[in-house]
Amino acid sequence: MSAPAHMKLVTEDEPVVRDDAAARDSDALTIPAADVSPPKKRKNSGGKTFLVLVLLIAGGAGTWWYLDHKSLNDTVSSVASTVGLTSEPAPLQLAAIEVAMLKPQTLTSTIRVSGALAPTGSTTVNAEIGARIESITIESGDRVEQGQIIATLATTDLQSALDERLASLDAARSQVEFADSGLGKIETLAKKGYATKSTLEKSRNDLQAARASLSSAQSQVALAQSALADAVIRSPIAGVVSERMVNPGEAVAVGTKIATIVDLSSMDVEVGIPTNQIGAVKVGQTVDLQVEGFGERIFQAEVTRINPVAQSGTRTVPVYISLPNPDSRLSGGMFATGTITVQEAKDTLALPKSAIREDGDGAYVFAVEDGVLARKPIKVGQAWDDGNLVAIDSGVSAGETVVVAPLPGLTAGTTVTLDQA
């Protein structure tokens, strides 16, 4: 064993001499004198010891490497298991909006329209005679029935005129009776030769004139009676008063407007159809309308008339739509928008255009069969909804689930799962 550099070996006969380093130590170290006789020859075992040490170090390092990498592999395997990374590819998950189940449906082709509502029936009530308004029984918004009295005119003058004409009629009747009696007498005298031919002719003319006067008097009475009847103003139709133009006490002339009455049981909508679409519009086609103020409610209407002449400047053809209004909730002037159904196909299978794929073999779709994508060749039919929907004539059946989203990279045989959300 070697002594530290700051120690010195001494014998018992030799005095201890401290060097500066030893003097600085707190206590002096005294080491007995070693045997200085020549050392015995020893076996060389250092090589074996070194080899064993190297092997131990290598074995320890290998063990550390194995254990360290085993822990890493276990960690990776655990993470892979957690996130679903296995040796087999995970199924492709399809969202609910990316697939659709085929069902027969009714396909329609429509033309959008818009226009203002107007009552189908409307009439303005006018005064038939000149007189003073004695009473009026309606206000704007009142509902009236056909024949209902809505106003009366003063009848004093009218009654006087009628009485006068009745008197004239009585006089005319008397004149006819007198002329007829005179003629009879003249004819008797003429037969006996006591009356001249001219006298007989004059009697006949007098009777004819009396009868004409009677007829005129009868006509005058009829006119007076009609005027008196016209003093009572009635509604010519059933409907609602949209406007009242006169007030009691006003003097009105013949033709003066008294009130406007509209029939709200049916409404008309005039719409303009572009000339390049008018060929598809026909009388009797169904129209679905939404009217402002009624939210999403759909009103069923019908095309009733088509104007034969396009409007200059707009190049549109006026088309008239009839809208039933049995509860009279709709009013003239309301604005309506909707669609005319110009073509319809019932019980038809159809898919969005995005679902249809094409390759060298033609059109096809991907259907989900037992959790696997299957390539289904199809025959496409007519395009609907401005080309966004396509009828399927053959290749798929109702009830099949088809991928409708334009997902890239799909191949037949891919395992998929469907999101039920």
How would you describe this protein?
This protein is an alpha+beta fold. The protein is 27% helix and 34% strand. The chain is built from 4 helices and 22 strands. It has helices at residues 20-23, 46-83, 156-192, 197-230, and strands at 92-94, 99-101, 105-126, 131-136, 143-144, 149-153, 232-234, 239-244, 251-252, 257-274, 286-291, 299-306, 316-324, 335-348, 350-352, 357-359, 362-369, 372-377, 379-384, 389-394, 401-403, 416-418. The protein has a 6-stranded antiparallel barrel. The longest helix has 38 residues, at 46-83. The protein is elongated, with a radius of gyration of 59 Å. The two termini are 83 Å apart. Mean pLDDT is 81; it is low at 1-77 and 79-86.
Structural descriptors:
421 residues; alpha+beta; 6-stranded antiparallel β-barrel; 5-stranded antiparallel β-sheet; 4 helices; elongated
Summarize this, please?
This protein has 421 residues and is of the alpha+beta class.
Rg from alpha-carbon coordinates: 59 Å
Strand content: 25-35%
Helix content: 25-40%
Strand order of the largest sheet: 3-10-13-12-11-14
Write down how many β-strands occur, each being a DSSP E stretch of 2 or more residues.
Answer: 22
Largest sheet: 6 strands, antiparallel, barrel
Discrete helix count: 4
